[in-house]
User: Fold these one by one.
Assistant:
Number 1:
Amino acid sequence: MKKIKLPEDFLFGVATSAAQIEGGAYSDGRGTSIWDEFAKRPGMIGDGSTPEKSCDFYHRYPEDIALANRLNIQSFRFSFSWSRIFPEGYGQINEKGMDFYKRMIDELYRYDMVPNATLYHWDLPQALEEKGGWLNRDVVEWYGEYASLLFREFGDRIPMWATINEPIATYVGYAQGIFAPGHCSEAKGRQANHHVLLAHGEGVRRFRQERMGDSRIGIVVDIWKHHPYRENCEADRLIAELENEKTYRSYLNPIFVGGYTDALMNYMSETGSMPDIREGDSARIRQPLDFFGLNCYNRVLDCADKSLIEEERKQKRMGGNFQDNGAEFYPKAVYDAIHLLEKDYNIKIPIYVTENGTPSYNEQPGEDGCIHDKNRIEYIKGFLYWIQKAVKEGHDIRGYYVWSLLDNWEWNSGFYSRYGLAHVDFQTGERVIKDSGKWYARTIKERAFDYEPGE
Ligand code: FCB
């Protein structure tokens, strides 16, 4: 048994998002988002649920932030609900929505928790979707107006800002139809993504314009690196290569290098999915950033012979994340991602692991009233071990956020996948801290945990 230590100034947090925890979908003048509307369509959400109430964080935030404090959480990552601020997407501000975030941030300060805010975590106002959503280039301006308002209102109170959480979700929503708003065309997916990237650049530009003092801005991208399933199999290698191009590289290249890779350009032209890219777009997207938010859950294995991995793939269906494979435990994924960021993109800014976690299905308290989620503890330990190794080797990793504080509304799997450190009874609203929550609280306090190498 080894003692694994994290540095004294390493930041431990939890990550959440508005659409998944807030509920209050129709409270105090909020407009609906694409996820509220998508969830109403039959068959789109695994258990037929909607995010209308979810964890009811909108009303219960004092209790939930107190719970986070009991877990010794140092930083709370959350997102703003755009349609709570601008019910129509732009124009008229909903003051009651603004007030909610002011009260919520006060509550974080009560416990000295560092607010880490995301401007956009997948929940576009429905009113904007009706104007074309992410396919309409005007969305860049709409997003800009929204971003500027939040920077002005909350600038000095929020030290960490992210423009976008996982831009790939927009691709999934416009190309694959399994996320909101449910379009199914590769060309739409690529166009929507191009606009998301432009919005990111616009957000950073406006942030600099507002002169935000010591606050920092970055973006959160998920890296699920694709590997060939069979070693030395050229067919598998080619699939993995293309998937890497279509996923994380299609964001990291424009953000850090400038423009799309030749391989992606070829793919888009061959598949008739080339977006409308205008002069100057590349420079607008590629803006200097203050930190990088890395979401990392696993790697993905690709195999040209589908029958070989069919069984594993079946299990990947419900996971809340379109590539969540749940099947393989590969915590080194985070170490590989850190190396890739430095080697392929030469990033010289601090990295925060802004999400990492694992789902359980139908997890309920046992007869003793507790939840013994040993798997989740082993999973987190594995990732923290590799993060700690990277820190020791001199990589600039400043913090780690567990996804998530609470079981919540997990997008298209509804309430079926539970990722929380605390269990939520969605009938009564009762919260119960799981064993993983207790373990995390101890780890944060001691800044160390016991680990059996190979775990
Ligand atoms: C990430 C999302 C987050 C949640 C977790 C499980 O991809 O950012 O909202 O769905 O997966």
Number 2:
Amino acid sequence: MKIVILLGPPGSGKGTQAKRLQQTFGLAHLATGDMLRAEIASGNALGRRVKSIMDAGELVPDHILVALIRSRIARPECRHGFILDGFPRTVPQAEAFDRLIAEEQLPRPIVIEFTVFEPELVNRLSGRFTCQTCGASYHDHFHRPRVEGMCDFCGGHEFVRRADDQPEAIRTRFRAYREQTAPLLDYYKRTGDIPLEVDGMADIDGVTRQIEAVLGGVAQR
Ligand code: ADP
Ligand code: ADP
Ligand code: ZN
């Protein structure tokens, strides 16, 4: 049982790498942004509540995310472990998740930090498009599907660009990252789950190799 937390700014490659790790290590991929976008697509009350917050690039209230994660990790596909992509994003979320770990007697998380310079993040987000069916990320220049027009992971043919991958929302998301998410790096130093740093500026295969090396080197806890 492994719990892996991918920590890094918007566009640093968390989703891209999580999709690969999911296959290699048999872990479930829990992407909170994808979950929230699914709520919006279904048009329910929660979706209606979070849509304008997400479009603006702001963070959705902590209690909503904690409830979402709590119900997800109880599902059978998480029993061998899971990758958290986009959660926790604030210190209160991390504290709530630690209480959940204690309650459910789960192992401590392996925290992986992606470092990428901001100008590169802007290039990545402004060229990003995603598979409508499974959420896989692609890029106009850096990462096209192997077969043009078809998703590598699910065979889907519909692709979308996210409303929040626009300059103003990108700026708001970077600010949210700096102010609310980056403090988690110190938080996990204090809990002893020292973040393992990977150079997110490398190409996609290079980042995958770094993560496999650090995960391979972490004893099963
Ligand atoms: P995040 O989930 O952290 O927001 P994504 O995985 O969606 O990031 O990646 C953001 C964009 O950058 C996507 O368009 C993706 O195809 C592209 N990308 C991801 N990793 C790399 C990389 N190592 N080099 C170049 N482009 C990348
Ligand atoms: P990225 O990693 O590319 O920034 P995500 O898909 O992870 O994007 O998140 C998109 C949006 O979903 C965030 O800007 C935020 O509005 C909302 N969101 C996702 N996860 C969380 C979270 N843990 N806490 C608060 N809001 C979240
Ligand atoms: Zn797909």
